[in-house]
Amino acid sequence: MKFLIEIEELSVELRSMLAVEATNILLLRVLAKDTTPEVRKNVAINFYTESSVLAELAKDIDDTVRKYVAANINTPKTVLHFLAIDEDQKVRENVAENLNTSKRDLIILSHDGSMRVRKNVALNPNSPTKALMNLIHDKFEGVRKAIASNANTSKEILKILGDDGYLNVLL
Predict the structure, then answer these.
(1) Given a cut of 90, is residue 6 above it in pLDDT?
(2) SS3 helix, strand, coil % of the chain, rounded to 5?
């Protein structure tokens, strides 16, 4: 227990730095329970944080912590599925951008009320054709431009964008 007491006695700045730089799984587990959201946020973005710890942090009351969990490439698909319906838009934006997000969740997020979430779906190279088709007539030009800029957008979808008068999207 002396290990826990020593960490708790460190400044928030030092604990935050440890959370970013740590590669030790046990240390990250301890820091994930820190009372300060800044420390937990840094654990959430750390590449070495275990999936079980990320799953716990996905339930954090602080939306910034959840946002960073959603951005971590090591966050499991099941956790990203849970975060795909988060009340916080920025959390959903990061889920839509995460390369580990399932195709099913990208399809769901293609119907999100937030233009930024939909744009991130359009930009995600793993977005399935169905998600991109859901977005092809989006009222926001930026979403349609994102579809056109996605390297994995099919020629069929690009043709539809051009045929529907969105030629400026393709330029």
Answers:
(1) no
(2) 65, 0, 35
CA distance 32 to 36: 9
What is d(CA 79, CA 1) in angstroms, rounded to the nearest whole number?
30
Q: Give the Cα separation of 162 and 128 in Å (integer).
A: 20
Contacts of 59 (CB under 8 A, 6+ apart): none
Q: How far apart are CA 120 and CA 143, in angstroms?
A: 8
Separation CA 157–CA 52 (nearest Å):
39
pLDDT above 60 for 170: no
pLDDT at 164 over 50: yes
Tell me the residue type at 48: Y
* Residue 1 confidence (pLDDT): 46
pLDDT of residue 127: 97
Nearest of 81, 144, 83 to residue 115 by alpha carbon: 144
Q: Which amino acid is at 116?
A: R
Q: What is the mean pLDDT of the chain?
A: 93
CA–CA separation, 88 and 156 (whole Å): 34
